[in-house]
Design a protein that fits this description.
It is a single chain. With 105 residues, the chain is mainly α. It has one domain: lambda repressor-like DNA-binding domains (434 Repressor (Amino-terminal Domain), Orthogonal Bundle), CATH 1.10.260.40. 50% of the residues lie in helices and 0% in strands. Helix 2 packs across helix 3. The longest helix is centred in the N-terminal third of the chain and has 13 residues. The chain is globular, with a radius of gyration of 14 Å. It starts with 5 loop residues before the first helix and ends in a 21-residue tail after the last helix.
Length: 105
């Protein structure tokens, strides 16, 4: 059996702090329950929809960096990323990757 991801564990921890279940989280932020259960369950995927990630950040009042990597960064915020990036719908998969700003490519 697959181990939960750190992302899923952070979502569960935040739900426990607010004393809500994953089903209640889904209801409160208008996200399908199946999506929330994929995040906290054995599949452990992270949200593919950036709007879902933004809703999680807003609801729990945490940064995307905290949810994705367990770090609290002040910049950049997910909201600034979304507002400056044109988002297309369709058959796309978005991957978020943490990079070291000191490294040069």
């Amino acid at each position: 059996m697959k181990k939960k991801t750190d992302f899923g564990q952070r979502i569960e921890m935040l739900c426990e702090q607010k004393e809500i279940t994953p089903n209640e989280l889904a209801r409160r932020i208008s996200i399908p329950r199946t999506s929330v259960h994929e995040w906290v369950g054995a599949s452990g995927r992270v949200p593919r929809n950036l709007e879902h990630l933004k809703k999680l950040c807003d609801f729990f009042d945490v940064s995307a960096s905290f949810l994705l990597w367990g770090e609290d960064e002040k910049t950049p915020t997910l909201e600034s990323f979304i507002s400056k990036t044109e988002i297309h719908t369709g058959l796309y998969e978005i991957t978020l990757k943490k990079v070291d700003p000191k490294s040069k490519k």
